[in-house]
Specification:
Blueprint: H1 2-10, H2 13-20, H3 22-36, H4 40-55, H5 60-79, H6 85-95, E1 99-101, H7 108-120, E2 126-130, H8 133-149, E3 154-157, H9 163-170, E4 174-178, H10 179-189, E5 205-209, H11 211-217, E6 223-228, H12 234-242, E7 252-255, E8 260-263, H13 265-275, H14 286-300, E9 308-311, E10 314-318, E11 325-326, H15 335-343, E12 351-357, H16 359-363, E13 368-373, H17 380-387, E14 391-393, E15 403-404, E16 408-410, H18 413-430, E17 434-437, H19 441-453, E18 459-461, H20 469-474, E19 482-485, H21 501-504, E20 507-511, H22 518-525, E21 535-542, H23 546-550, H24 554-562, E22 571-572, H25 574-621, H26 626-640, H27 642-646, H28 652-666, H29 680-698, H30 702-732, H31 742-771, E23 792-795
Helix pairs in contact: 3-5, 4-5, 5-7, 5-8, 6-7, 7-8, 12-14, 14-15, 25-30, 25-31, 26-29, 26-31, 30-31
Length: 835
């Protein structure tokens, strides 16, 4: 009650914020008359002067009114589009590093130009991130006229560019591209060997278009670069053949809500007979058990033409949020191979992770981040908690007059689809355009068949027919048009009403079922009623829909039975609509918790990733690498001679072990007779002799040889570490049974694994250098990264390996190692300073 009174008196937080930036809007408007008098050349010249001032350190905030006024005038002269006041507000919100929620048709693409130009003046680059290549190219070309007019350069990053083309695009003032391309370029750069091979600049400022799709819907899918592993694929085909012999609810149970499969006691015995093993849960049979569970998931939880399609002999994932195909993406943990076996196509070999990052952690690398979407307010808490981004709801330029009718609910899907066809028929008769949103390819094709029987002409837009997407959507507002589309129609392209359609009531939206997320429903509704146009929307549901079946209240079902409802008779009630929205809220909260948990686990990896990647950069750019090698020698010798600190009298066995280590790592018997243990100082002196000999042999190539072996050792051990961390993560949940917090255990054990990896990087580097002998002229090309070929770029991809996680021993941190706190400093200058 108190909050209600406060809002009435002082307005909501959103209203107070909008009021606070109103003076800025007025200042921009006051500059319009004098900017209009400038010639084209004078405008370019002024932008150039402001660029010089910005590069010298002048605050962009102080330049905002003048720059926005210049951009508005440039929009009029190049695009015949003048920014409205509400679009100026959107531009201010983006510049301040917030999310602007703007309804469909309010001109988000034009709004971005204001903040883009202002931030481009710093000379550090601006990234505009879109959901697909088509939109990246379209927006760069369309808004590029405005940018070029003001003397700013524009680049586009799309699939298929080589490194030189990418570098050129990143060096432009403004770079458009997709989230996948930006993320993969970051990972690829952190696998390069020479500074001149890097394509990206420092991550300065990004505006993410459709920010909810990228930062929330795709947050559970990590970007992964992987290389082929040596795992055999025959087991997938073998296990796939036995799946038809297993019976649901007898041998195994399915939980559709959680998307999990569990074997029953009876099922385990049955499988042991089929596979001819005595104990399926014996550690040596863990791979068999894993393959069976993945094959069951493939058969019972993943549906063809819903979750994936089969095209050109490949299983291609369909994005559940947009309905778009995701070629190159593969399900993790052998699930994709299980689907390939199920569909009878070639089972591709599993891959080993070489580099990975989640979108959540990639976008948190930018100094400043902003976003735009038509639907963000429902996820405002998540944006704030995970990305520290505030959501500001921007008012519409004209009042929204679309009618959103209550949902109608039928008992069965058959009744529901017949009702949808009746409604389409009525609209078609009067000439009103209709856009029908479906949740899968399968449903869109079923509806298409029903409309053909009724002789109603229509277009189908789904992942199978996405080539004409923009053209089909652009015409969807014309008189008499019927368009059936999966969720892909909800993004990026405006539906403009054709002549005479406004008078008929505008575009009518039909939703064939509710999505798990309210945002997806709101996006579909938002295709109608743009810029004050008339329009309407209605969702048709049935008790057999997934959301209703899994999460809907049973009370609705019993109510329909009590009312003695006849076939084809619906319920249309606001209370029912509210009950469904509550079910959606529960699912959204559940999904948020999943994303939050994933992020907490990835944060452990992220700290380690930051340490490794910053050390990699240091190695790439350092002119003199000898001090690093000397630090490595000291740290390894500390470890080798550690038993001397612990024992006063060394027994022959320990002496033997230390001598063996000196031979194995440093090749010390090459320059020293090791009949008895040398002192630490003597050992170091002779190791330096070996390296001096290498230096003389290598001549001018010495630094590059050091760089090559340092980076090669770092990359090889990092790759192994990623595999070990995957193994650790897979089994960590079991710690809960021992009354231990799995997340805390993951942090502790992950830290120990990381310390071991740092030790092995040093050991392997020194082993390689001390055993290296150069007897001919060195060819610079030999020091290229050998693992850059045959890499796969995919989302959510992991692999099993024959290698087990390394056994750890307790070990102190080397003083010259990167500090485990993630600061990027050496341990001795950070947390170890006072120890």
């Amino acid at each position: 009650m108190f909050n209600f009174i406060v809002k009435k008196v002082f307005g909501t937080k959103n209203e107070r914020y909008l009021k606070s930036i109103q003076p800025l809007v007025e200042k921009i408007n006051s500059l319009e008359p004098q900017i209009q008098k400038l010639s084209d050349d004078a405008m370019r010249s002024r932008i150039n002067e402001l660029r010089v001032e910005a590069e010298k350190g002048k605050s962009l905030d102080k330049m905002l009114p003048e720059v926005f006024a210049l951009v508005r005038e440039a929009g009029k002269r190049t695009l015949n589009m003048r920014h409205f006041d509400v679009q100026l507000i959107g531009g201010i919100v983006l510049h301040q590093g917030k999310i602007a929620e703007m309804k469909t048709g309010e001109g988000k693409t034009l709004v971005a130009t204001l903040a883009v130009v202002l931030n481009a003046l710093s000379g550090k680059g601006v990234h505009v991130i879109t959901v697909n290549d088509y939109l990246a190219k379209r927006d760069a070309e369309w808004m590029g006229k405005l940018y070029n007019f003001l003397g700013l350069s524009v680049g586009v990053i799309v699939h298929g560019l080589d490194d030189e083309e990418r570098k050129k695009a990143y060096n432009a003032d403004i770079t458009y591209g997709t989230n996948n391309e930006f993320g993969f370029d970051y990972l690829r750069d952190n696998m390069k060997f020479y500074p001149e091979q890097l394509v990206q600049r420092e991550l300065n400022y990004a505006i993410v278009d459709e920010v909810d799709s990228i930062l929330i819907d795709e947050a559970r899918t990590p970007l992964i670069i992987s290389g082929p592993s040596e795992e055999s694929t025959y087991l997938y085909t073998k296990i796939n053949r036995i799946i038809p012999r297993l019976k649901r609810d007898k041998d195994f149970e399915i939980d559709e809500k959680l998307k999990t499969v569990t074997l029953t006691e009876e099922g385990i015995k049955h499988l042991e007979q089929i596979l001819k093993v005595d104990n399926l849960f014996d550690p040596k049979h863990i791979t068999l058990q894993h393959h069976v569970l993945q094959a069951l998931k493939a058969h019972y939880l993943f549906k063809r033409d819903v979750d994936y399609i089969v095209k050109d002999g490949q299983v291609i994932i369909v994005d559940e949020f947009t309905g778009r195909l995701m070629p190159g993406r593969r399900y993790s943990d052998g699930l994709h191979q299980a689907l390939e076996a199920k569909e009878g196509v070639k089972v591709e070999a599993e891959n080993q992770t070489l580099a990975s990052i989640t979108f959540q952690n990639y976008f948190r690398l930018y100094k400043k981040l902003a976003g735009m979407t038509g639907t963000a307010d429902t996820e405002a808490v998540e944006f704030k908690q995970i990305y520290d981004l505030d959501v500001v709801v921007i008012p519409t330029h004209k009042p929204m007059i679309r009618k959103d009718y209550p949902d109608v609910i039928y008992k069965t899907q058959g009744e529901k689809y017949r009702a949808i066809v009746r409604e389409i028929k009525e609209m078609y008769k009067v000439g009103r355009p209709v856009l029908v949103g479906t949740t899968s390819i399968e449903k869109s094709e079923l509806l298409s068949k029903m409309l053909k029987k009724e002789h109603i002409p229509h277009e189908v837009l789904n992942a199978k027919h996405h080539e004409k997407e923009a053209e089909i959507i652009a015409k969807a507002g014309e008189k008499g048009r019927v368009t059936i589309a999966t969720n892909m129609a909800g993004r990026g392209t405006d539906i403009v009403l054709g002549p005479g359609v406004k008078e008929l009531g505008g575009l009518h939206i039909i939703g064939t079922e509710r999505h798990e997320s309210r945002r997806i429903d709101n996006q579909l509704r938002g295709r109608s009623g743009r810029q004050g146009d008339p329009g309407s929307s209605r969702f048709f549901l049935s008790l057999e829909d997934d959301l209703m079946r899994l999460f809907g209240s049973e009370r609705i079902s019993s109510l329909m039975t009590k009312l003695g409802m006849q076939e084809d008779e619906p319920i249309e009630n606001k209370l029912v609509t509210r009950a469904i929205e509550n079910a959606q809220k529960r699912v959204e909260a559940h999904n948020f918790e999943i994303r939050k948990t994933l992020l907490e686990y990835d944060d452990v990896m992220n700290q380690q990733r930051m340490v490794i990647y910053s050390q990699r950069r240091e190695l790439m750019f350092a002119k003199d690498l000898e001090p690093i090698i000397y630090d490595f020698i000291d740290d390894i010798l500390d470890e080798v001679y550690a038993p001397l600190d612990e024992k006063k009298d060394l027994d022959p066995e320990t002496t033997k072990l230390i001598i063996a280590k000196l031979k194995e790592i440093f090749n010390l018997d090459r320059v020293l007779k090791l009949k008895e243990l040398p002192s630490r100082e003597e050992a170091k002196e002779n190791i330096l002799k070996i390296l001096q000999e290498l230096k003389e042999q290598a001549g001018e190539y010495y630094q590059e040889i050091l760089r090559y072996f340092l980076l090669e050792s770092l990359d090889r051990n990092w790759k192994e570490h990623l595999l070990n961390m995957d193994h650790l993560k897979e089994g960590i949940g079991l710690r809960g049974y021992g009354q231990k917090d799995p997340k805390q255990e993951y942090k502790i054990e992950g830290y120990e694994l990381f310390q071991d990896m740092l030790f092995y990087i040093k050991e392997n580097t020194l082993k390689a250098l001390c055993h290296l002998k150069i007897e001919r002229q060195v060819n610079e090309e030999e020091f290229q990264h050998k693992e850059e070929q045959n890499l796969n770029f995919a989302g959510a991809e992991k692999t099993e390996s024959k290698k087990q996680p390394i056994k750890r021993k307790s070990r102190k941190i080397g003083r010259n190692e990167p500090c485990p706190c993630g600061s990027g400093k050496k341990y001795k200058k950070c947390c170890g300073a006072n120890k």
